[in-house]
Amino acid sequence: MLKEIRCAQLIKKKLEFSKGLNALTGPDDGTNSIGKSSVLMLIDFAFSGDDFIKLCSDVTDNVGIVTVEMDFVFGDVKYSFSRSTNDPKVVTFLSEEGSPEKSLDEYRKFLKKIFDFPEHGASFRAAVNPFFRIWGKDNYNPNKPLNSFPSEPYSSIKPNLLKLFSLYGALKELEQEKLAIEKRKKVLKDAFKEGYIKSVTKRQKEKNELRLNHIESEIAEIKLSLENYSINANQIINDENLRIKSKKDVLVSTLFHLKNRLKRIDDNLTYGNKVNKKNFEKLKQYFPNVNVDKLAKVDQFHSGITTILKAELREEKAILEEQIESTESEIASFNLILLESARAIGNPAGLVDKMLELSAEERELREQIRFRQVKSTIDDKASDISNEIVEKVTNSLSIIENKLNSTMEKYINKFYRGNPVSPKIKLSETRYEFEHNEDSGTGKAYANMIALDMSILEETYLPVLIHDLIVFSNIEDHAIEDILDEYASSNKQVFIAIDKVNRFRKGTAKLVKNNEFLALGPEKLAFRKSWKNRT
User: Where are the alpha helices (DSSP H) in 272-291?
Assistant: First the structure.
């Protein structure tokens, strides 16, 4: 527990505390602005809170840097720390060798450890902050008593409540599994979004399955054809080659005749030229009896005929040359076909290409179907886990609800006589309600909130409460007296601010006095000076 705090700026430099009730008292005339709430905020600061910096800036503005040393005692072991407003994120661990400076987060973890919070318990601040009800924190609305601040969402309140009642551990594994599934869903969603995987609807998946069956049949047929092809390929190729060879032979014969005709035309055109008589004289060397003059006359005749037909011969020559070129081209084409068909034996390219095309489509369809199934599996798993979490949370909240309602009824019966109306808390998956039932007066509403706080203090590992004067302002005196008795009998710590103590019965006034850690008044200000009036 918190045993002591020391602060040089306070009117009382050392404040000592005990278990049960710890009272900060004000004067009987109810004078305000004397520092009661600021001192409670300083205690909150010692418990690693931040609100003193934010809500009590007027203190630091007027008195300067505030440094607090605090001692926590557990059994025979004392832990000492120091924290200052000029660097509130740093805490000095005075009881450790060398007094090292550590972060505020480390300090909070240390407080959680020394106060013996369970493994899956709430963080230290999450546990205590809703129940440190100090003026300025806005967490003292009796209709929303579980809120740390007015707009706090139930999504934050609910897990904190489950942790306080040690009912969160069973959910943690499910929450982690759900988180892992949500990550997988996001990865899959991003893959669909970026186009790496094509997303298909349920109807499209069914169409893909039908198409996949058809593709599998086609591929099976092609495989069978390829097997037959490997057996009959040579025969197929030979039959085709014979047909092509036959056509080629016809073309070769045609080419031969065309070339012969062209040669004759070339000879006619050549023969039509005049021959020199000296050439005939040379012929006499071999044939002495040849008539040279007669040969010359015959040659002269042919030359004359050739001259007349020369134009026709040249035209026919051009036609023959064109036919020869075309025929040679066809023959070359047939030669190429024969060469390719010889290469194609055992390599049915068309069938193979078709099978590759179908295989690619098959792979794509299988991927789409597989990822659709993966998505459905993930979605189903996420839904199952969510439903399981909801069921466990609902059951756990029901346990908490029953405990709180039963314990609150016990405390309300101590605060009030004559069978008083007890408040009821309703905890659901999405919201909570705090009902005051038929007795909805302001004072009773605040007493109901105190009953709730005392119930949580009793039923959980929550180590401490802080109740400022505003919590008691509208409650009847007789109820406050019984509330103070309950504070004093607690095995944990309760810090309060209260004034007008003499209005209570003597036993209560004495109880408060015996548990008083600081008394303030108009002449005894918390930080020894006032700044409430303008100068």
Answer: 277-283
